[in-house]
Each structure stands twice: as C-alpha cells, then as structure tokens.
Amino acid sequence: MLDQIIAIVKEAGGIVLAAHDIAAQTHEKSSAADLVTEYDLAVENFLKERLPPLLPGSIFYGEDVTEEQAQRAEEIFSKACPNAEVTLLAGGQPIYYYMISAE
Known about the structure:
single chain; 103 residues; alpha+beta; 3-stranded mixed β-sheet; two-stranded antiparallel ribbon; 42% helix; flat
C-alpha cells in the first residue's frame, strides 16, 4: 500500500510541476492574503479521489481545521459508528474542511 500512496503523491507532484501562468490561475479564498490556485484545486481533487480507496475509514482534514477540531470529529464519528476503525490524517487541503472515506 505504501508504494501505491507514494505513486499517487508523485503523480500529484506532476500536476504542480506542470503549472504555468500561475498568476492568472490564482483566486482569493477569504481575503487577498488567502490565495488558492487552480493547481491547488486540481491536486486536492486528485488526492481526494485517489487516496480514500487506499485508506478506508480515514478522515482527512484541511488547513482551516485545528487538530483539536479534527480529534473532536473523530470522537463524533467513532461514537456514531462504534465498530468502525477511524483514522485522522492531516491533509492540509485548502478548500474542504474534511474528506471522509468509508469501506
């Protein structure tokens, strides 16, 4: 599984390396100091699609979520589904607070 994850991350890196005309592809999120590029979004969508099937029961949390908030989400999911294995992964994605995968 680790080899598959490494291959996925390398492929995501290829998206970043192919970036061009970044200034024209940059947008504000919440303010002029909080920016996101089309390439950020492409990598996020790519990882969101490819990683969860390899890591079932995982909760990926993004840059706008504190570790304490993520741990609270883990507690809520674990309580709601006591027989499920729940894992937190700090994904750092800039758009979505959480990505949840289940098998």
